[in-house]
Amino acid sequence: MAETFQNLMLGFSVALQPSILVYAVVGCLIGTLVGMMPGLGPLAGISLLLPATFGLNPIVAIVLLAGVYYGAMYGGSTTSILMRIPGEAASVMTCIDGYAMTQNGRGGPALAIAAIGSFVAGTAGVVGLMLLAPTLADWALRFGPPEYTALLLIGLFILAYMSGGSMLKTLAMAALGLMLGMIGIDVMTGYTRFSLGIVELGDGVGIVPVAVGLFGVSEILLTAGAVAAPEVQRPRLRDLVPSGEEFRRSAGPVARGSLLGFMIGIIPGSAHIISSFVSYGIERRISKHPERFGNGAIEGVAGPESANNAAATGAFVPMMALGIPTSPVTAVMIAAIMVHGILPGPMLIQTQPELFWGFVASMYVGNVVLLILNLPMVGVFVNILRIPYGYLYPCILCFCIVGTYSVSNSLVDVWILLIMGAIGYALRKFGYDLAPVALGLVLAPMLELSLRQSLTMSAGDYGIFLERPIATTMLGLGVVLLLFALKPLVFKSKDWRSEVGLEKQ
Amino acid sequence: MTSEPSSIERKRGGLKSDQLSGLMLLALALYVGWENRAYPVGTLQEPGPGYMPLILVVFLGATGLLIALWGAKSAPLASMNWTEAARAVVILVACGVATFALERIGYRLTVIALLIFFLGVIERKRPLPVALVAAGFSFASFYIVGDLLHVPLPRSPWGF
Q1: Could you report the predicted ipTM of this complex, rounded to two decimals?
Q2: How many Å apart are CA A309 and CA A90, to the nearest integer?
């Protein structure tokens, strides 16, 4: 514990440097704006800002991108509460009771509780990250290729089980993403695969054009027709203070949302989205007055908002400790660190303590910055929502193109962006979840390498996965989850999605 | 699966949305499997570059087939709403033309032309705001991304 405290002090000595503090504030500001804009979620925002971080030192780069991430998580809630427009997917559940509160004249307290809940959950999440990541990293030093293969496979199984839609569709999308990850030079043999004769594809398909295309461009293609600017309320500072009763009702949901969100955040998939759905379902279920939900229950704002912010922090645990991204956002952040020649993984905390602990401390700072910035400035931020969407989406599209181009100054990346935008549009029309595609793309090289190394180690015997206790346990758990996921398909029973109302959204 | 269809829609014949999407995935898997013939699969002791793609082809093909088989109860293809599709195609084509032009006429001219097309032609906004937004966004974004963040953005042959 003393060592953790000492390391945290080291982190604060890094994070409180004026230059890093400025980037944390800038990141939070950009993130809040990005989160409020329909079509630009945290992933698109981080991807677009990625090239700008190439010239920065790695600590500043990751602090800036992390600020954008949790700033966007908060920004999304503002549009949900005031306009019933989720700035990003994790805020969908906040729309229901948040907007009802606005209609009842309690929009200000809803915003305040969302900000306070996000602050509490974000801070609790950082404490969890601080305590869990070093322990996990120490444990992961025992991992060989079979354990990594099992870990990546269990990640995909959990993704299938926890996905918001059909399990089969999620698995198909994960396979599609893994296939995209096969494009390029095979690191073990030097073969160039599926490159269609395009030299640039020898390096593989980048995460940025795929992520921005699937999430940013496809959203614009789906919504470009809706041009009317909705009515926006501008709450005054004095209207933001919640009543004692609202504080009392929010305390439990914030605590539960923080814990639940952090736990879900560690596992792969669209954790911040799933956690807000699950939190809302739980709050509605345990409430003595479930009929209040949908009509302006403050618990329906406090729970999901806390959960999605805690999940955003939880996602950093496997990223920092294992070097494994559990979401497209953390995948892009890993890319940002790797550009500087730093390899995230179990050794990161030992070899780059300033980076890890500086990042942890900057998240504490970022949470305080968000709380200070967002409440007094909410009236300023909502002005952006007055810009008609007809003006906004062409500019967002131009940002998508220039952001993607500037990653490697390649027009091939821009073509990939547009193709992925079209594919993402079609897949969303057919009800497919896109997060597994981006995740599969990132995990593919790791999975292929560890699988082939495992088979080479065992002279082609798949039994190696059953001979090593850690790998066997993880695979066993994965199979159990897969069977649970298959149960509703075979027995036509309800699964957890319908229990929390996820499929209806 | 895709949006819950009404009982009348269910009874209506024709291809269902999940059936089509499942078959498309199956077709993609078959295509990749065909392309994968060029790479040695290797042996279990020493898997080659075609080994992992082959596993994925089988997996994607199987899930695609299952989606198609289970998709009989999904929404009929004819009931899907494609009202925004024409606009989406126009947007994509315009972006494609802009991509083609980007390294030929430079970032600023490309973005000005693209924004004039989106705002003036597609959104039918008034000429003055269109001109101001197009020129303002183009120059401001070039200044922020190109000059402040030192990202090399393409210039036109005339140095502009």
Answers
A1: 0.91
A2: 9
